[in-house]
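Final report, Chapter 2: Outcomes

The project's central promise was a pipeline that accepts a single protein chain and returns its three-dimensional structure in a standardized token representation, suitable for archiving and comparison. That pipeline is now operational. To close this chapter, we reproduce one record exactly as it appears in the project archive, with the input sequence first and the structure output second.
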Amino acid sequence: MRAKIAKLLVLTATFILPNSCGEDEPEIVPDVPVHIEFNLNEPFYNAITVPMGAVKITNVGYNNNGIIVFRLNQEEILAFDATCPQHIAVNASVALDENGSGTATCPYCHTVYYFYNNGYPAKGYKLKSYRVSFRGDLVGIYN
């Protein structure tokens, strides 16, 4: 009886433990220094004054592919590197989809990224995210 219980415990530990202690996801897009500050009252940022709005700031982020800033709701703004992590060697920058959709698509591999799902696609690696500080009309994006 003890042998059966021990065997059951070993089998349970073999299948449950590897799945319960998840590792951090790999960082596919390399780190580059990012420090951006802006005021939401500037005309360029008009799209992110309302929930589900997004803008793409060019010439920043990894390989200057840009950073996407997304307004999830009135209290939360998210920022992602626009580099597609599915094929970093190609150096593809995702394009914002229709404003209000909360998505961007890679023109190379056609992967769709969902900002409201923390930059995850249906399958594959997520977009690299950046820290955002947000107080009143002032927004800061950092890594």
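Archive annotation: Residues 29-142 form a domain with the Rieske Iron-sulfur Protein fold (CATH 2.102.10.10).
This record, like all others produced under the grant, will remain available to the consortium after the project formally closes.
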